[in-house]
Amino acid sequence: MDKIKIENLEIFAKHGVFPEENKLGQKFLVSAVLYADTRKAGTTDELDASVDYGAVCHLIDTFMKEHTFSLVERAAERLAEELLLRIPRLEKVRLEVKKPWAPIGLPLESVSVEILRQWHSAYIALGSNMGDRKAYLDQAVRALDFLTQSPGKEDQGSVSAAGAVERVSNYYETLPYGMTEQEDFLNACLKLRTLLTPRELLDELHRIEQEAGRERVIHWGPRTLDLDIIFYDDLVLEEADLCIPHVEMHKRKFVLEPLCEIAPYQRHPVYGKTVQEMLETVS
Fold first, then answer.
1. What's the pTM?
2. Are 96 and 57 in contact (CB under 8 A)?
3. Is the four-CA dihedral 131, 135, 137, 139 of positive or negative sign?
4. Residues annotated as part of the active site
5. pLDDT by residue (tens digit) across 229-276?
6. Does residue 53 contact residue 19 with C-beta atoms inside 8 Å?
7. Is 90 helix (H, G, I), strand (E, B) or coil?
């Protein structure tokens, strides 16, 4: 991916742990590597086809001056998020926030925090077999489509608005899986563009399930709403309570059928097969 670099943008702001830092302020230096496709800008010579680095500099300056954080880590995190949410065509950003006058009582050139943040694509499976099944799925789609909300609540340290639903499959009537003595399911899949990490995304899915009255009482039992991460970019992850890709997805027609509708050529990062190829092998 192409890069646009901004080096050592000088800003006077009021971030710091000590009260005098928040009151008197100090100098910060911000460097950014902006990842975007500059091919069209390079062939057309049109600013609208690229990332406007002048606008980025002004956004960085305004953001750093209008907010006050205790930690440079928090300032970098929120600034990266602001850039990704606000700057068109920006796919990834590497930020370094330097604090040349860090009050540690020893001679140094600067202290800095450097982070890399980007947009991710995740595929989520949805299911319900209790109550108004369609209403529960609709509710989940709306809850995940939260990019249009205002940015994060920095005072509370909470995860902020960081996603948008890009595609949603049709809803499929399917037979229950595992425990078959229960009502039929309504299943679907969606594609989510998100800034959340896999763990943050899992927590968000659990929160949405809880709001829908989901109770984890019987394994494979009835549920008002079931949300699973199927793919997250090309990530392969194995943790005690989170495996990506979903370990059973290649065996489940009720996942593969709606997923094939919106992403037939998405390839499994372990097995190497496309969704369409996996669907063809299940009954």
1. 0.88
2. no
3. negative
4. 99
5. 999 999 999 999 999 999 999 999 999 999 999 999 999 999 999 999
6. no
7. coil
